[in-house]
Amino acid sequence: MTRILVLDDEENIRFFFTEALKKEGYEVRTVGKGDRALELFREEDFDVAVVDLKLPDADGMEIMKSFREQRPEVPVIIITAHGNKQVAHQALSEGAYDYFSKPFDLTDMRVVIRRAAENARLVREVEELRRQMEEGLKAEAPRFIGESTVMRVVRETISTVADSDVTCLILGESGTGKELVAELIHLQSNRAKGPFITLNCAAIPDTLIETEMFGYEKGAFTGAAQRTTGKFEQADGGTLFLDEIGDMTPMVQTKLLRVIETGEFHRVGGASTVRVNVRLLAATNKDLKEAIASGSFREDLFYRVNVVSLPLPPLRNRPEDIPILVTSFLTRFNEKFGKAITGVDEEVMARFLEYPWPGNVRELQNALQRAVVLERSDIITFAAVPPEMIGGTPSTSTLSLDELAGQSLPDALKQVRSRFERVLIEEALERSGGNKSEAARLLRISRVNLHQKINEYAIGNGTSSRK
Asked: What is the maximum span of the chain, computed from C-alpha positions, in angstroms?
């Protein structure tokens, strides 16, 4: 129910509002003194306020200002017996929703109150939608998974720097989640409603990187048929993430430094100055201090982008997080591929914990995605994981071109397959302690098929002491 607060020192006016507005279905609270009105407004929720301009104990204009400071979404209607155009203009300029001189027309007042109440309802709905959107953004934000000490430090750093608007340099090997960290910083900042734009400096040819960053004017070069905005303009009001900034050419580094210092740039082929409000985040897997020493990276740009340094640990340095990551990826890929895999074989998990993960979390994610697709049982076994993770190495599971010389491609592939099968069987027998039944289970083949392969490849001279 719409609730209306009426402040007027005349009892008959308060009675009039009470009777008239209750017939409209409103809940009405009336009060004759300013201090009591302020107290009620603090304690209760109202949708519309009607305030007399001239009060024995208060100034109605000041009361309205106080209401507006506390809850600016509540419309305030001013009434007075001493009105003129100047007073009306002042009331409206101070934030009044509308203004009436006594005596006023009841029909007009009802219409204005109805509109004010509707306006208040719409404002509340917009604010609620905005709140839901912000909560949705947070709920859908990617998680930076891990409970190790180093990961807790990373998350704390993200929370600390998010709202400061400082430039951050995110450091780490490929696959450690640098772009994810940049996105989390953006989503936790006061720019979360603005755009998050990424540019991989290593993926853009040197001749195009400038136009990608700053855009270009029509006719700037052959094929420039119309003005095109660059990443800086696209990120205006939000965040621009420059990935692999260490691959940027010295010329573009110089122009980037100017934008960071001034917030201004020119589109390629343009003379007019473009000004933007962008928060810059950068990342690299290179040692920029070495690049400075070699002359390939500007020292002044390094200090501009490295206001806050955020190093990310490689996965091999936080093995305690691997089971947590595995569980998360399994949940995601089960849903994606319609599978119901419940976990990972203990031996596979042991290998995951030993494996150095040169591709870091990205490699683990890809390995789990592959395994979920290929696995036929309800747990991930060695048969579904990439061969390099179960003991095979390039020297034992592949052949060089020299070794394949003179062979047709089908014959070469057969030879590679045979060598790879032998590696897998030997690994399975080793892990099962020579138990052929267990080895067959690990390989997801029949025991008879395993015996045939053992004999074919003369593994252990084709015999084993264990069943």
From this structure: 113
Quote the CA–CA distance of 224 and 211 in Å, as a whole number. 11
Task: Write the DSSP assignment of 91-153 as a string of letters.
Answer: HHHTT-SEEEESS--HHHHHHHHHHHHHHHHHHHHHHHHHHHHHHHHHHHSPP----SHHHHH
User: Is the CB of residue 432 less than 8 Å from the CB of residue 438?
Assistant: yes
Q: Which residue has the tokens 């419309």?
A: 75
Could you state, in order of their start, the residue ranges of all structural domains in the chain?
3-128, 149-313, 319-462
Q: Is the pTM of this model over 0.85?
A: no
244: left (phi over 0), alpha (psi -120 to 50) or beta: left
pLDDT by residue (tens digit) across 361-409?
999 999 999 999 989 889 999 888 887 776 544 334 445 555 555 566 6
Distance of CA 464 to the CA centre of its chain: 55
Long-range pairs for 202-207 at CB < 8 Å and ≥24 separation? 202/243, 202/244, 202/247, 203/244, 206/249, 206/252
Rounded to an integer, what distance in angstroms lies between the CA atom of residue 49 and that of residue 42? 13
CA distance 99 to 86: 12
Cβ(9)–Cβ(32) below 8 Å = yes
Q: Are strands 273-275 and 264-266 parallel, antiparallel or unpaired?
A: antiparallel
pLDDT tens digit sequence for 59-100: 889 999 999 889 888 999 999 887 677 777 888 888 899 988
Neighbours of 200 (CB within 10 A): 15
The dihedrals phi and psi of 336, each to the nearest 5 degrees, come to: -65, -40
- The CATH T-level fold of domain 319-462 is Helicase, Ruva Protein; domain 3 (1.10.8)
Which strand ranges, in their side-by-side order, compose the sheet holding 76-80?
27-31, 3-7, 48-52, 76-80, 98-101
CATH class of 3-128: alpha beta
Q: Does domain 149-313 have CATH number 3.40.50.300?
A: yes
Which residues are paired to 49 by β-bridges?
Answer: 5, 76
